[in-house]
Amino acid sequence: MDFKIEGPLFQQSPVCVPILRSLPDWFGIEAAILEYEREIEHLPTFLANEDGSVLGFLSLKQHNPFSAEIYVMAVQLQAHRGGIGRALVAAADFYARNLGIEYMQVKTLAASRPNEEYARTRAFYEALGFRPLEAFSRIWDENNPCLVMVKRL
Question: Burial, 1: exposed, middle or buried (Cβ in 10 Å; 0-12, 13-18, 19+)?
Fold first, then answer.
């Protein structure tokens, strides 16, 4: 796969939301997609492009001078396991380190709610150095327990 990472860019909702909608096993809650759409507009976003086609993206949210969050990341299903997610996280890590950020976090579905897609997601983040910090039942809702994962940059 021959792709290029661009960013950080802003106002990228028009290219990112179709990717979210194409992944209902990960992004199947309409209210969440609409929230992502609003937030992506003003967040630094990295795009993975191949021949003018966006294959994936990552939007970063800085919480304070020391920490940032992978607010949302998605890669088109046909491009999974092609190195795009790893490259997007590397670009976000580089950007965050240059801002003096020390910690990166990501929120994902906790293992207490079995789900094959999210088991792969957690394994992906663990392979990139993220470690489980704590699971919360009230960040999203009781049916969607949230696992916060962190790594030191």
Answer: exposed
